[in-house]
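Hi R.,

Here's the chain you asked about this morning:
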Amino acid sequence: MSDFTVGETDFLLDGRPVRLLSGALHYFRVHEEQWGHRLALLRAMGLNCVETYVPWNLHEPHPGDFRDVEALGRFLDAAREAGLWAIVRPGPYICAEWENGGLPHWVTGELGARARTRDERFLRYVDRWFRRLLPEVTSRQLDRGGPVIMVQVENEYGSYGSDAVYLAHLTDLLRAEGVTVPLVTSDGPEDHMLTGGSVPGLLATVNFGSHARVAFETLRRHQPGGPLMCMEFWCGWFDHWGGEHVVRDAEDAAAALREILECGSSVNVYMAHGGTNFAGWAGANRPGGELHEGPLEADVTSYDYDAPIDEYGRPTEKFWRFREVLAAYHADPLPEPPSAPAPLAAPADVERIAWASLPAVLETLGTPERVHPVPPTFEELDIARGLVRYEVDVPGPRPPYPLTARGLRDLAVVYVDGERAGVLTEEEPQLKKPVAGPARVELWVESLGRVNYGPRSGEPKGITGGVLHERQFLHGVRARALDLDAFEAGVDAVPFAPLPEDGTPGLYRGTVTVRGAGDARLELPGWTRGFVWINGFNLGRYWSAGPQESLYVPGPVLKEGENEVWVLELQESNQGTVRLAPL
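And the predicted structure, written out as tokens:
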């Protein structure tokens, strides 16, 4: 068995200096049947290690309800088979442009700002989670014949807090549960971040996208000795709905990578392959100065990240430029990239055969309706990803007054007496047309993703400040929720009807016949916003706001012949084409 340690100037493998050339690839953003292909591409790019986060909320969606925690172990086994070492970053907070930064909604809903601190309840939840998770890691450490050479404590904690007691607890917990490989921290290369996020006795690493020498100079002020490592070299960036697609020049990124390596540093390319935010797990951000208090910007379904390996698993120009840089650090020629997975052989249109209204879907798959004095949050209703219908009565008779969803997060389609009255957002929470009483008001509120970074992380979703008619709160709110996970059991119980003539929202059910199954794109021209499933696999959110114009369909999701398709349209549609297209 081998031994990996932190030396005075280098990482050491069995006592000999070694440089980590790592790349980020998140097992939860790539279809499991495609792990091997993507890992082989990392090897071909010149990497000797893979790094992955672990999203707590994916694996424990409800307290004590652990789901497929073993997926991490299977991924680490695949990394070993690919000839790669592995760095595991279990959080419990991961950022990663992932829903709530990986923290379960039920944790932040209960604890608020006490999450990521020494709060006893938070530590109790973390302890239980880590004791369930860590056997997948410890049994696969390098000294036991596995690929794991390093584990990270928390994640960029200095960008958020300064609770040294909390960080010490995590460190002690990891050691007590059997982690023997080196523990490290990672933070931005700024004094307040390094002082808040570092742990005495552990190697500190830094995250940045350029100016490596300056970043390492800052690190050396805090940590004079030990090997240098950029734990996140940001070679691209992520996109927001309604924004522009972000691209970083390949030569510029390669030059930045070259500078990192010329400093004698190890590196983790973030992302080497981004993948996809399937099933609505994309997070959100609040840019706007150091406090990150600006308007919500929701992340798109694609996590392409302008990475060297694109969302579809194809080498990009950046891949080849990085390969040229990394080849200089290998004694032997690099392996050739594996062949690309077969694409869909021919385009195919989805034949829509039935439709169910949103109320019918909610009645079948949603939670029971209950009356609340004020609108409950998603967290109070135990909803991770999905939507809530709030229904409230405006008393009457009374003249038309403004109706406002105070503290709306994030988006509401509003109906008054069954007629659509408008779409509200956090920035525009008041209906344009006043409402007279008596009236019945429905607000179908959708979460666009919980904030994953900054002081607003973990903020609740839904109508968080009440429904106002003029200046009067409307009480006695009826609420019913539809969680995306409810679709896992299928939709056979939903009462479907013939297709409507107009583009009304609802659940559209159809089929698509495939000849030559393979990787594909799903195109939805004319549809506004919602989610798509193929054969029960949730491809994620689509939205006409762009910049993303289609959804990635991994080849393993499709089968020869007939495939079932569900489109959950939440706003409106002209019932345009739904089409599978080859990559």
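The chain is about 20% helix and 30% strand.

Let me know if you need anything else.
M.
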